Amino acid sequence: MERFPSLTATIITGSGLSGEYAAHPRIRYFEIDQVEKLPDGNYRSVDTSQSFEQAIASRKRAINEFLQHQPADIFIADKEPLGLSGELSDALKILKAKGTTLVLGLRDVLDEAVKLDLEWKEKGITDAIEAFYDHIWIYGSPDFYDPLQGLELPSSVVSRCSYTGYLYQPHPEFEQLAPEGLPDDYLLVTAGGGGDGDFLMNAVLSAYEADPSISCPAVLLLGPFSDSAHEREIRSRAQRIMGTAVIGFNSEPETLILHARAIIGMCGYNTFCEVIARNKEVLFVPRQTPRLEQSIRAERAKELGLCEVVKGEQADDPASFADDIRSLIQSTERPKPGHNLDMSGLQRIGEKVEAILAARNHPSLEVEHVG
């Protein structure tokens, strides 16, 4: 935001975590009804008094009303071109009519091509992108992966695509901070958001139970969406393993990552960026369902020498997974070959926003982001 002193930004969010982050005088949050993803890939309303369909209808009304009265110069949609379940369909029309520059932001990996192509055709997503979006920003690098490969896209859509590089913001001040109350040497286990990471936490605990001689203590970072009942069970198990620590939500995990000897994670986008940017030794245990996003990202990173990968069913064997953990810990003593990923995405997005605002012939005013 410092680059644009007169810019204000609104983040339209259904995460429920806006209050956990440091406030900024020119960034505001507009909260809509929360929904949560189930293990099978379906969703439900967090508010149990309403159905998922009612939650989506409420989100749609709220977004439409907000944008009718407070249209933006730039609107960035995160990952889902039409929203989670079509709630942006009318909003895109509203913004297009008001002359807003519409941007679709996509992660470096979405899903396997066959499944994604079918989904986009069934939902009319390609047609919607062609009709509404002016730019498609891919938050990755072309030498890592093309998230749209294998899709039948018109040239008019392909021509709007550009790679930004990965979205990583280094915080040098964290290098001077040591995590309080943790061992000097530890293995960090992170579940990202945490909603579906319980299997990873339990797999690590089982490995430590099977092999108490693992020398590096584990620190388990559960994530903000960890199920409360599962969290209690994990904490109870961890208390019986000497040296193991459990941390709930942490809005700034970089300090934990920076000071860890090695990392075990699921290979979600944010974890991937934070770990790879810090050149940490990492073992990914990617989720296999409902999408292959994490698995594709992890396997590609392994090809480039950036990580090691263990599949979920392999992690279910405590003795075998304990061996994997030992190997990971020992690998910190070996030189690490590497592939330098482009981590300048935030800087490049700033340049793109600057160019859009310049083309609109006025200073920066308002940016909306929905995600």
Can you put this structure into words, describing what you see?
By secondary structure, this protein is of the alpha/beta class. The protein has two domains: 8-166 and 343-370, Rossmann fold (3-Layer(aba) Sandwich), CATH 3.40.50; 172-331, Rossmann fold, CATH 3.40.50.2000. Helix content is 36%, strand content 17%. The chain contains 13 helices and 15 strands. It has helices at residues 52-69, 89-97, 113-123, 125-132, 155-158, 198-210, 228-239, 254-259, 269-277, 293-303, 312-315, 318-331, 345-359, and strands at 8-13, 27-31, 35-37, 43-45, 74-78, 101-107, 135-139, 161-163, 187-190, 218-221, 245-247, 262-265, 282-284, 308-309, 366-370. The strands form three sheets. It has a seven-stranded parallel beta sheet. A six-stranded parallel beta sheet has the order 11-10-9-12-13-14, with helices on both faces. Strand 13, helix 10 and strand 14 form a beta-alpha-beta unit. Helix 1 (52-69) packs parallel to helix 2 and helix 6 crosses helix 12 (318-331). The longest helix has 18 residues, at 52-69. The radius of gyration is 21 Å and the shape is globular. The chain starts with 7 loop residues before the first strand and ends with a strand. 36% of the residues are buried. The model has no long low-confidence stretch (mean pLDDT 89).
